[in-house]
Amino acid sequence: MRNIAFHRLTPIAMALTLAPCAPLMAQQLMLEEVVVTAQKREQSLQDVPIAVAAMSGDKIEDIGITDLEQVALYIPNVSINQGQATSNIFIRGVGSGTNQGFEQSVGLYIDGLYSGRGQLAKVPLTLDLERVEILKGPQGILFGKNTIGGAINITTARPDFETGGLVEALYDPDHGEQILTGVLTGGLSDNLAGRLAVRYEGMDGWWENETLDEEGPDKDNLFIRGSLLWEATDTLEIIAKYEHGDFETLGRPQVVYQSDQPTNYLGQSPFPVLDDHDRGAGDILDTDDTELDVALLTLNWDVGMGTFTSITGYATYDTERNTNSDIAATASLNRLQEEEYDQFSQEVRLVSPGGETLDWIVGAYYQSSELSVSKTNTDIDFLLSGPLSVPALTATTDQRIPTQFDQDSTSWAVFGQGTYALTDTLRLGLGVRYNEEEKELDKASTNPGLGARLTADFVVLANPANNILIEDLRSHSFQGLKRDEDKFTWSANLQWDATDDSMLYASVSTGYKGGGFDEAYSNSGPTVRTGNIFTGEPDGGVVETGVDSSILNYDEETVLAYELGAKMTLADGAANLNLAVFRMEYDDLQVSSLVGDVFRVGNAGESVSQGVEVDGRWLLAEGFTLGGAVAYLDATYDTFTGATCTVPQVSDPVANPGCLNQDGTNIAPGESGGQDLSGETLLFAPEWSGNLNAEWILPLGDNLELRNNLDVNFTSSFYSSLDLDPNTEHDSATKVNLRIALASVADTWSLAVIGKNLTDEKTMVWRNDVALTDSNSYFGVPERGRSIAVQARYRF
């Protein structure tokens, strides 16, 4: 099943290979050089001893990419998507789970500013860019902590002293999508230039809520970026940038795709299986409103011995999200969440000119941040004293469950990296970084009246995995919790120029991601793990008292990574081919799993991610370029005992063994336990993934040309749910995208038709079991099906 994508692609690959190549011998063909800053200095992509995929801003415009998720489709072993609660970024099977206590395992950097929270990825990351670089593997030396899986390095377009700009409009009539973009740049004086980029995104939606007869996602997004470039002297430049965004989404697509029991814990029938990718049900339309601001000041000063760079950044956002937590079509458990974040950072570094016997970089970094998360569940009177008729709770009235999570974090680091030329063709690179971090936490849940009842009475769900519903109702308070950690990381690499057109490298590196506090954990009092909520009887449940506050902590995550690679220029510069073989060994991999209606955090012992990646491009003829990439990935847990059991394992342990007690025996019906996932796959880790793409520019007379861009993206099956329930496996999929544009040869205007997912593959970005049910009921977040849009662009 995992190889289906390759068989589907064979005819397409053959067709592209046999495309017209007659002009090949008529002239010298040369691919345009790709320049990256993966090592904090400008270098050719072919000279960097790192597995890096890069895409220029012009290329992003030419193929009609409008967000970073679409960029990831072109790069194997990279997954970027909007999950159930936040953005998910995974590289080589390594990423962060869904919990507000987490930071990303893949660092996102925009013009040098670290954006460690998923909400900061809401900005239109493909607007007016110079380039996007995706660095695979740990990047802990130059990019810092929390790049344990890799880094995404985005560089926006600089202000230009020559007046210019563009106006662009995209419209999809089927989904009511409109994307309007405007860019203006020019000189304001002899040494001052400015640039303004604006994008509006609107959409009526492509998914229908059958219960409310409403469509979603209904989007209304506005983003503005303004920047100034001041060339103060011949050796000093200062760039100031400010960004503001308002992002409003109504109606997050989610569908129940399987349910063998039509009732929920209320005895109602809220989970209709509509057997349709584009239709779902829910008693509310989820909302997600975010307002963010980013300010950045960058100074570049040539001091003779090198370039001194200072990057001062501030980022803040406010998010309000209303979520149908149990996916029910009837009034039940909904959650309002408000999140506020403020971040200040300062980086300074000194970079040698380059091209010398010893090239070096030294620097320091400081960051402070404040995170506040407030959650309030809907009024639960109906749940406690209505259909359930729980004896201990029938007297409760007007009960809501507010929780508060406030975390302050500070960190600082010093780092250095050097590359020494041992011979004309052999170079040795070494890097070190020392980092210290401190986090402080205040956390509370305030529901005194109900909390007292729940402390005194046994009240639990039949399915132990869903007892979190009751545990969440207890009051608790943790004040002034603190954790401190420091870490030394290092890297080493050896580069050999085997020929003038080929470079081989070997590297070994370490990295780490800081530990933290579980934002979702909400019980500090006595806990009942088994029993029956309908009778109020304990049924032999075990009471755990005196839970220590350290249970909120999850440990740091570390990695030791090895990589062998080759970067080759072929056909006298008309083609290139890159290869990477890697192995990454992780300890205490941070994971989150859905327990009840929240995501709980823990560490998963040891895991290994290893594989092979190949990518290349070939300018077969003037105006015709063929490219592609393929990756094989073997990413598994070495040791992961005590993982969350699946719903079938808990509800029917006889038919579905594997959920074990502490003594290693299978649980009895109604008991809780854990499963052993050692040797099983990591999340978002398809065994095979890849892309084939072709660009063909066909002249139409002296002034017009037809620009054709075709790409085929494929992935084998994978999981997004930590318990690896077979019912949540994502099938293999192949998607075809096409852009055909009529344009002027001078590139002043173009009219294009853009087709995405032309074969209308029905895929999902995330799957899990429905919260708070004891049946085999599952839901997912579907991806958009086929879309056809028209686009007009004018440059000046």
UniProtKB/TrEMBL annotation:
<keyword id="KW-0998">Cell outer membrane</keyword>
<keyword id="KW-0798">TonB box</keyword>
<feature type="signal peptide">
    <location>
        <begin position="1"/>
        <end position="26"/>
    </location>
</feature>
<dbReference type="InterPro" id="IPR036942">
    <property type="entry name" value="Beta-barrel_TonB_sf"/>
</dbReference>
<keyword id="KW-0812">Transmembrane</keyword>
<protein>
    <submittedName>
        <fullName>TonB-dependent receptor</fullName>
    </submittedName>
</protein>
<dbReference type="Pfam" id="PF07715">
    <property type="entry name" value="Plug"/>
</dbReference>
<keyword id="KW-0408">Iron</keyword>
<keyword id="KW-0472">Membrane</keyword>
<keyword id="KW-0813">Transport</keyword>
<keyword id="KW-0732">Signal</keyword>
<keyword id="KW-1134">Transmembrane beta strand</keyword>
<dbReference type="InterPro" id="IPR039426">
    <property type="entry name" value="TonB-dep_rcpt-like"/>
</dbReference>
<dbReference type="Pfam" id="PF00593">
    <property type="entry name" value="TonB_dep_Rec_b-barrel"/>
</dbReference>
<dbReference type="GO" id="GO:0009279">
    <property type="term" value="C:cell outer membrane"/>
</dbReference>
<keyword id="KW-0675">Receptor</keyword>
<keyword id="KW-0410">Iron transport</keyword>
<dbReference type="InterPro" id="IPR000531">
    <property type="entry name" value="Beta-barrel_TonB"/>
</dbReference>
<dbReference type="InterPro" id="IPR012910">
    <property type="entry name" value="Plug_dom"/>
</dbReference>
<comment type="similarity">
    <text>Belongs to the TonB-dependent receptor family.</text>
</comment>
<feature type="domain" description="TonB-dependent receptor plug">
    <location>
        <begin position="45"/>
        <end position="151"/>
    </location>
</feature>
<dbReference type="GO" id="GO:0006826">
    <property type="term" value="P:iron ion transport"/>
</dbReference>
<feature type="domain" description="TonB-dependent receptor-like beta-barrel">
    <location>
        <begin position="257"/>
        <end position="758"/>
    </location>
</feature>
<keyword id="KW-0406">Ion transport</keyword>
